[in-house]
Amino acid sequence: MSARGNDVAKYISFLNLEVEAPSYAYLERICQAHLNTFPFENISKLLYFRDHNYGKFEVPSFEKFIRAFENHHYGGTCYTLNSNLMILLKKLGFTCYHIMLGKEHMGIIVTLGDERFYVDCGATAPFFKPARFESGHENRSSFGNDEVYLLPVDSENNYKYMRFMNGKQSGKTWNFHSRREITMDDFLQVIETSNKPGATFMSILRCHLYQTDQQRSVSLVNNKFTIRYSNGETTVTTLLTPEEIRSVIADEFNLPKLPVLEAVNVLKELDVDIFAE
Fold it and tell me: By three-state DSSP, how is residue 142 classified?
């Protein structure tokens, strides 16, 4: 097997899956496994920023993404997670392309037969299976009190992405055109903006992972550790020291290689106090 083939095999092995022919069932297993394996986190983002001398950030290549998870348990934010997931899907034989939601978020459209499906493992959202948004039958994805809707805006393939937590809208409404194919070059400006000091994921400490085998998700925002269960129950713990955060990432997230203490130091250098109330 070539080095490139080895990278695909390694990626799939991280997901505890086998290489199969493209199908809806296989794509669903990939989505489920991805959300339970690769964390949505900005720890890697902060350290890549530091390692580039606090300058330009580049989305890690397919090979670097795989090595970074293997060596450091890195996942990433939407640009890193969804761009590399789409590379994997293409290497597995799926037909897919990127779309842009709300002029900032990167999603994936996968075509199976004559139907398009929305795939997204880069928004902490519960897309455990491809969303059949065009048919109107399965445009809601949920986990506990976290719900995401993909709703038609008109008959011209325009849709909107809306997320609700405990019945209240969470975040922005993202509009998108489901058939407008977007390339990585189209994201360069928004990626550059997202990596400047003061941008959302340059001014907090963030990590999120689903653990559906335990019917829960785990989430860190600065020094607040939240566990959300599929029955809607939620617990929140305030962590008092960087070492407590490191322990939670290692023990509760099961990501002991993630260099969270280094990321806390980068935020300090950017004048961000994650323990400030």
Answer: strand
253 in a domain, yes or no?
yes
**CATH code, domain with 221:** 3.30.2140.10
Is 237 inside a domain boundary?
yes
90 is a domain residue? no
Residues contacting 168, CB < 8 A, separation 6+:
none
What's the number of domains the chain is made of?
Answer: 1
Its domain, for residue 236, covers 197-269
Backbone φ and ψ for 263, nearest 5 degrees, come out as -65, -40
Which of the four pLDDT bands, split at 50, 70 and 90, describes residue 58? confident
* Residue 116 burial (CB count, 10 A): 22
217-227 in b/e form (b: 16+ CB < 10 A) is: bbbbebbebeb
Determine how many CB atoms are found less than 10 A away from the CB of residue 192.
12
pLDDT for 56: 67
For 49-55, which contacts have Cβ atoms below 8 Å and span 24 or more sequence positions?
49/195, 49/202, 49/266, 50/262, 50/266, 50/269, 54/197
* Overall pTM surpassing 0.85 (yes/no): yes
> Is 208 a domain residue?
yes
Q: What are 78-99's pLDDT values in tens digits?
A: 999 999 999 999 999 999 999 9
Instruction: Dump pLDDT digits (tens) for 217-227.
Output: 999 999 999 99
